[in-house]
Amino acid sequence: QVRLVESGGGLVQPGGSLSLLCTAFGFTFQFQTMGWFRQAPGKEREGVSCIHYGDLSTDYADSVKGRFTISGDNAKNTVYLQMNSLQPEDTATYYCAALTEGLCVLAGDFYDYWGQGIQVTVSS
User: Is the separation of the CB atoms in 70 and 60 below 8 Å?
Assistant: First the structure.
């Protein structure tokens, strides 16, 4: 059974940086697309970023463009998110997600596998 495991979350001050890594275990194939989503308490899930390994195309939510960068290793089914200039509004549980077939989209309904989530807190 495929498992996605996030690491790298924690507490950071406003303006600081944090990196997230998602690693897949138990896979026998490569995902076409992997991405990151987040959900703050009382709010709906939001697509943050995704990467399509076929053409390396990426997409970002408007709220994180210019601050976050996604990258990954298709052969290892890993995805990385570098988060800079973090603000309190970025505080949320961040989830790694993957889909076996499909383009890079920021709609969670398309994804086949999900991690358990990791907390990112931006506070002074």
Answer: yes
* Tokens 């089914």 sit on residue: 77
Q: What is the DSSP code (8-state) at residue 67?
A: T
Alpha-carbon span 53 to 103, nearest angstrom: 9
Mention every residue, 6+ apart, whose C-beta is less than 8 A from residue 68: 48, 49, 60, 81, 82, 83, 84
Taking only the tens place, the pLDDT of each residue in 7-46 is 999 999 999 999 999 999 998 888 999 999 999 999 999 9
Q: Let me know how long the chain is.
A: 124
CA distance 119 to 8: 9
Within 10 angstroms of residue 106's Cβ, the number of other Cβ atoms is: 16
Express each pLDDT in 65-81 by its tens digit. Answer: 999 999 999 888 899 99
User: In terms of DSSP H, where are the helices of the chain?
Assistant: none
